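tool_call: predict_structure(chain=1)
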Amino acid sequence: MNKLMPYFRLMKKSIILMIVITLSIAITHDGKEILTGFKHSVFENGYLIFKSEIYSTTALLIFIYGIYLSYIKFNVAINIKADRKSYIKASIITMIGMGIVFSIFTVLWSLILKFVVEYVSGKNALVLGDSAYFVNTFTDIINSY
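tool_result:
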């Protein structure tokens, strides 16, 4: 693990930047969707409906971050130390960690938005997610609360 520490330190700044970008995009996009939902008052069976596309947004940003790690940071890391295997191991561990963090973040964010909308409107809220099967499973679990 000590062999991987220089690479983790190299990726630390870009990981923090990626988290900040994802948070700002999620807050902006879902905030816009909530305001639109309040403005148009889209109700179906007594539920205030709003759509959250945070799942596809975070998946796209993780994909972009993977390209960033493999292209730009790889060149920098090879110039520092010519250990390709350790860099690849560190980037794989980083991407798995980012995937876990972002999946937990997206589910918690949708749950927080649901509670905020229910608190502000006084009505039951319904979160509509993206069309993927596992995402609909998450939104069904969130809407059951």
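agent: The beta strands are 43-44, 47-51, 124-128. Proceeding to next step.
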